[in-house]
UniProtKB/TrEMBL annotation:
Entry protein name: Arginine--tRNA ligase
Family as reported in the entry's similarity comment: Belongs to the class-I aminoacyl-tRNA synthetase family.
PANTHER family reported for this sequence: ARGININE--TRNA LIGASE, CYTOPLASMIC (PTHR11956:SF5), ARGINYL-TRNA SYNTHETASE (PTHR11956)
GO cellular component: cytoplasm
Predominant location: cytoplasm
Keywords assigned: Aminoacyl-tRNA synthetase, ATP-binding, Cytoplasm, Ligase, Nucleotide-binding, Protein biosynthesis
GO biological process terms, semicolon-separated: arginyl-tRNA aminoacylation
Compartment list: Cytoplasm
A GO MF label: ATP binding
Length: 591
């Protein structure tokens, strides 16, 4: 439909120019999708702002535009006679045969009308990015799910996407971790093979407790940081063991969720940190304030009204999170080799890091590290809350482990499924039950996250996300299952064009119109990086489909209606599958 929208936009503008050539006014058709189905497909409100400057009633202006518009043969082919409504809105309705032709074109198109871009420069999506030896928490889960969906949409549009896991694998905390490791598991440091260090989160807690209580442990830990930074082989080995252990844990979650990521942690940028500070000094941005190297931010001031600094080198000479992110930006935009040559870098983190990124982006911009027309964007998201509106916790008050959370989603789905099978007196084998429970449970977790506007906080509720009704993964997956059932009952959903599509029922036209919105929705998601737009669309589509299928006979209809209706079923399932796939959610034939 986007191509139709663009064509209409051009025709309207040309008509306005012909009618009001001498207006000396900026002419804008103000074309938008109709707000209600009874207004047709599109609405053009461009007559209204011309009323004052032209000194004419807006309805007269609309009439003049319509007169020019209908004289255009290309327009007449596309739309029925326009209607003028209210003070001077022009309502446009596409010709049914045009809608059918658009639909026909989609039936043979695996991309369902979504064009591909011809871009060579990669888009980087920096997402997930948990910290070594620390818990991968629900915030990282959100980043993982949202980042993966955005990467999928960009990849589908044809962008080369670099999915980067900016893991926190460097920093002073490794001093205490390595010291602790050397003392509790010295044998690990001499073994050639991978070793299992057990639960790293508990390990971290023990190391931290010792660091807080024991002065000599503290001193050794500080010396250990220096050794590590100096490249001491034993320290590096210990660091590597800790990273490997975490990596294996993270990978389990990624495997479970079907997430592909390239790890490029903070440590990767170590060799570039000094150069970042040197370059900032060279371009005159660096100010030494109380011994620390910083850049004062423009347009940002603290509570006292003083300009806020972005610290890039601590007074002890060490670098920090911001220095690493600056080095990362510089590397990502620099042409290769020695850079990624990216065109766009997207960071998916919690909203709490917004000011960090604003500062880093500003400094990188002023230092000239973001070549135009490239861009950086922070894609923030809100907190995950429990049912009570507070930070998500287990019943005993601990932070929720991701593995437990995903397992519980699957277990609950399994229980619901067994109940449903019993109610329906259906019997299925164990393999089926396990597969459906896993697939639907994980889909529910992903979808619940993606379907809320990411900026707002989001209340995690198993009951809500697993419900078979409402804007949930099970509801959408069930629509796909329903259509697969039509095929099993003898409806030919085979690929390829249908000789002639004929529709007569309002429910059919509603579904046709809904199906044709897909490409526009994808364009919107790509632009605004809001996966919930796609979710809302898929939910709406499922509802329109269910209304159609409940009210219009398909398998029992006579030809040619039967084939046309089956074509609608097929395009619906294709659109749902493609759309859910872009959200990282695979569909099922039965559930
Ligand atoms: N490791 C960080 C955290 O857990 C997220 C890193 C995000 N990416 C970045 N380039 N700063 O909060």
């Amino acid at each position: 439909m986007l191509t139709v929208l663009h064509a209409l936009q051009g025709q309207l503008l040309a008509a306005m120019q012909r009618a009001f050539q001498e207006a000396g006014q900026p002419l804008d058709p103000q074309l938008a999708p109709a707000s209600k189905p009874e207004f047709g497909d599109f609405q053009a409100n461009g007559a209204l702002p011309l009323a004052k400057p032209l000194g004419q009633p807006p309805r007269a202006i609309a009439t003049a535009i319509v007169k020019q518009l209908t004289a255009d043969p290309a327009f007449a082919e596309l739309c029925l006679e326009p209607q003028i409504a209210g003070p001077g809105f022009i309502n446009l309705t596409l010709r049914p045969e045009r809608l059918a032709a658009e639909l026909q074109a989609r039936l043979g198109d695996p991309r369902l009308g979504v064009p591909t871009v011809e871009m060579q420069a990669p888009v980087i999506v920096d997402f997930s990015s948990p910290n070594i030896a620390k818990e991968m928490h629900v915030g990282h889960l959100r980043s993982t799910i949202i980042g993966d969906a955005l990467a999928r949409v960009l990849e589908f549009r044809g962008h080369p996407v670099l999915r980067l896991n900016h893991v926190g694998d460097w920093g002073t905390q490794f001093g205490m971790l390595i010291t602790h490791l050397k003392q509790v598991a010295p044998e690990a440091l001499t073994m050639a093979d991978a070793v299992d260090l057990g639960d790293l989160v508990a390990f971290y807690r023990q190391a931290k407790a010792r660091f807080d209580d024991d002065e000599s442990f503290q001193t050794t830990s500080r010396e250990e940081v220096v050794k590590l930074q100096g490249g001491d082989p034993v320290s590096l080995k210990a660091w590597g063991l800790l990273c490997d252990q975490s990596r294996r844990e993270f990978q389990k979650i990624y495997d479970q969720l079907g997430i592909r990521l390239t790890e490029r942690g903070e440590s990767f940028y170590n060799p570039h940190l000094q150069a970042v500070v040197d370059d900032l000094r060279a371009v005159g941005l660096l100010v030494v304030d109380a011994g620390a190297g910083c850049v004062f931010l423009e347009g940002v001031s603290g509570k006292d009204g003083q300009p806020l600094p972005l610290i890039v080198q601590k007074s002890d000479g060490g670098f920090n999170y911001a220095t690493t992110d600056l080095a990362a930006i510089r590397y990502r935009f620099a042409p290769g080799p020695g850079g990624d040559g990216a065109s766009r870098v997207i960071y998916v983190t919690d909203a709490g890091q917004a000011s960090h990124f604003a500062g880093v982006f500003q400094v990188a911009q002023r230092a000239g590290w973001i070549p135009s027309p490239c861009g950086v964007e922070h894609v923030p998201f809100g907190l995950v809350q429990g049912d009570d509106g507070k930070k998500l916790k287990t019943r005993s008050g601990d932070t929720v482990r991701l593995k437990d959370l995903l397992d519980e989603a699957v277990e609950r789905t399994e229980a619901d499924l067994r109940q449903r099978l019993a109610d329906e007196q259906r019997s299925e084998d164990e393999a089926f039950i396990q597969q459906v429970a896993t697939s639907v449970g994980l889909a529910a977790v992903k979808y619940a996250d993606l379907s809320t506007n990411r900026i707002t906080n989001y209340q995690f509720s198993f009951d809500r996300m697993l419900a078979l009704t409402g804007n949930t993964a099970p509801y959408l997956l069930y629509a796909v299952v329903r259509i697969a059932g039509i095929a099993r009952k003898g409806g030919d959903l085979g690929a390829g064009a249908v000789a002639s599509l004929t529709f007569s029922e309002a429910q059919e036209w509603a579904l046709v119109r809904e199906l044709l919105k897909f490409d526009g929705v994808i364009a919107e998601v790509e632009q605004e990086l809001l996966p919930n737009r796609l979710c809302n669309y898929l939910f709406e589509l499922s509802q329109v489909f269910n209304r159609f299928y409940d009210q219009v006979p398909v398998l029992k209809a006579e030809e040619p209606a039967r084939s046309s209706r089956l074509a609608l079923c097929r395009l619906t399932t294709d659109t749902l599958s493609l759309g859910l796939g872009l959200l990282g959610i695979p569909t099922l034939e039965r559930m």
